Amino acid sequence: MQISVIGCGYLGAVHAACMAKLGHDVVGIDVDERKIAELSAAKAPFFEPGLEDLLQDVQSTGRLTFTTDMSAASGSDIHFICVGTPQKKGENGADMKYVDAAVTGLLPYLKSGDVVVGKSTVPVGTAARLAELVQGHQPDAHLAWNPEFLREGHAVNDTLSPDRFVYGVPGASEDHPAVMALDEVYSTPLGAGTARLVADYATAELVKAAANSFLATKISFINAMAEVCEAAGADVTVLADAIGMDDRIGRKFLNAGIGFGGGCLPKDIRAFMARAGELGADQALTFLREVDAINMRRRTRVVELTRELCEGSLMGKRIAVLGAAFKPESDDVRDSPALSVAAQLQLQGAVVTVTDPEALANAVKRFPELNYDDSVDSCVSKADAVLLLTEWKEYRELDPFVLGGQVSVPRILDGRNVLDPAKWRAAGWTYRGLGRP
Ligand code: UGA
Question: Are 247 and 285 in contact, with CB atoms under 8 Å apart?
Fold first, then answer.
């Protein structure tokens, strides 16, 4: 099929490459010239495991091109909208200006029978509004909402073999032309047994908001348990293992630590609350305010624990922070809890040095006032405390004996509860986890 993908960020670049991998002819379109130049040279503009190999693989087939010129969409029958919906400045709601600009920019190139497919995370009601816009311009074009559930760090695999497809079309009609078009686009994963649900627009939009809200709630639930465990002298990691053995609960997303961040969960729960408020259903989501508050409290708690570790004062203390990305296998620092903690420690008088295998360039742009070091060895050298804040594999596997010889005082705060406390204590370290005795 002939496909255009509008917006080539974390979602669109991966989607474009994966659609070409599935055998389609794809053009990726973005207003950012630097991004398009890199993608055209088969370079990933951000760190995502497997993406660069995939770009090289599909570009050699000639099925994938990139451009800043929206008119290139005129050669396609299916147009995926993959632009961002960040939080509005100073408000909880989602900023729709990129989605609106993408669809408006596409209108002049739509032909009869074309299908516009929204993948961006949007407030419920957006698809109906955009469908009117599309059909006001090209009455024989269609609009579908097909939310994306990929995780950064697993984006290629999540796109090629997702858990499920959700298609939002008017009246949830199986016979809608957009359903047939999407079935053809995704024929390979569908053939391999991936489930697909056809829903109306509002339900499809809400599925995404509900899924991210559930995940955020699960993380804040276990972090709330961590607070209680701390007060009671209990161990939240054992508690999570034990409740997670109940199938109905499940162990995934029950890792207590410094909380969730990134470009999705934090802004999505806020946008969901804002939209529910507009719809008069704000009471239904007041619990998400608590989910957000528990999450933000984790960051303050880590700063307080670091102060305790440093004998009551952060002033002039050398703190080594391992991890800047919001999670491992990503260079994304949007709302990264690790960087937020690092910045608060620095504000309170500590001398903070941050290291990360992939995210330093992005971190420097966001927090230029922090010190950065690309080597763990020099980052931890003479440190008064080491904080593990993003659980990259190389940090989980650090040898406490080797590291102990490099720091000034062997104190470690395990912000993700991924180290073995007994091993670190045996090597002479003062170990603190979150929600662990
Ligand atoms: C999230 C969802 O998981 C995806 O399904 C969704 O498609 C995506 O948002 C999106 O809306 O685009 P992502 O932001 O890539 O994906 O990251 P997650 O793996 O969900 O992690 C989010 C945050 O939660 C990270 O900061 C992570 O460290 C934290 N987390 C995760 C925990 O603190 N504990 C856990 O047990 C799991």
Answer: no
Least confident of 57-61, 105-109, 193-197, 284-288: 57-61
Task: Go through the domains of the chain in sequence order and give each one's CATH number.
Answer: 2-199 (3.40.50.720), 235-437 (3.40.50.720)
- Residue 122 CB less than 6 A away from ligand 1: no
- The residue whose CA has the least distance to atom 27 of ligand 1 is 260
Please give the number of the atom of ligand 1 that sits closest to the Cα of 121.
Answer: 11
Distance CA 204, CA 202 (A): 6
- For the segment 218-239, what is each residue's pLDDT rounded down to a tens digit? 999 999 999 999 999 999 999 9
Which letter does DSSP use for residue 349 in this model?
A: T
The rounded percent of the chain whose pLDDT value lies above 90 is 100
The predicted pLDDT at position 327 comes to 97
Residue nearest to atom 30 of ligand 1 (CA): 260
Residue 318 CA, chain-centre distance (Å), reads 30
CA of 380 relative to ligand 1 center, distance in Å: 28
CB-side neighbour CA atoms (13 Å) of 242? 7
Ligand 1 atom nearest the C-alpha of 263 is 14
Active site residues: 264
Q: How far apart are CA 231 and CA 216, in angstroms?
A: 23
